[in-house]
Amino acid sequence: NRCVNMIAHLFNAPLGESETAVGVGTVGSSEAIMLAGLAFKRKWQIKRRAEGKPTDKPNIVTGANVQVCWEKFARYFEVELKEVKLREGYYVMDPLKAVEMVDENTICVAAILGSTLNGEFEDVKLLNDLLTQKNKETG
């Protein structure tokens, strides 16, 4: 917890004086992705069970440019991988196409800040705005 709190303070996390940060430290990005994916899946399962809905078909949406770790996460933990295909001259995930792939079984949409192909950042702001709008419309 000491390291997690140090990182929280480093990034100015909004913590009160008596609050401590909650999180897990990892050695590398692959480990972080696996742990985050499991947390997404577990939170989704808990919500679905409370609603009396099935929990056997979770999915994630990524661009085709993501680290191979996202593919491994999907395979290892039985999560469908929905991949936004890239197109000539555009080597990051298209936010509009990503949001079209989201459904009630989507546990996360993974945006990349530094594509494995060319280092380009995906448009996280637009992706967030589109997902927020979709959530307002569909719940």
Q: What's the CATH topology name? A: Aspartate Aminotransferase, domain 2
**β-strand number:** 3
Shape: globular
Overall pLDDT score = 93
Radius of gyration (Å): 16 Å
Residue windows where pLDDT falls under 50 for at least 5 positions: none
- Main β sheet profile: 3 strands, parallel
Percentage of residues in helical conformation: 40-55%
Give the class from helix and strand content and strand pairing.
mainly alpha
Largest sheet, spatial ordering of strands:
2-1-3
**With helices defined by DSSP (H or I, 4 residues minimum), what is the helix count?**
5
| Assigned CATH class | Alpha Beta
Q: Report how far apart the termini are.
A: 34 Å
Assign the CATH superfamily: Type I PLP-dependent aspartate aminotransferase-like (Major domain)
Strand content: 5-15%
Query: How many independent structural domains?
Result: 1
CATH architecture: 3-Layer(aba) Sandwich
List the helices and strands in order.
HHEHEHEH
Describe this structure in words.
17% of the residues are buried. A three-stranded parallel β-sheet has the order 2-1-3, with helices on both faces. The N and C termini lie far apart (34 Å). The chain has helices spanning 2-10, 29-50, 68-76, 95-101, 124-138; strands at residues 59-63, 80-84, 106-110. It has a single domain (28-138), classed as Aspartate Aminotransferase, domain 2 (3-Layer(aba) Sandwich), CATH 3.40.640.10. It is mainly α and 139 residues long. It is built from five helices and three strands; from the N terminus they run H-H-E-H-E-H-E-H. Helix 4 (95-101) runs parallel beside helix 5 (124-138). One of its GO terms (molecular function) is glutamate decarboxylase activity. Pfam families: Pyridoxal_deC. InterPro entries: Glutamate_decarboxylase, PyrdxlP-dep_de-COase, PyrdxlP-dep_Trfase, PyrdxlP-dep_Trfase_major. Belongs to the group II decarboxylase family. It catalyses: L-glutamate + H(+) = 4-aminobutanoate + CO2.
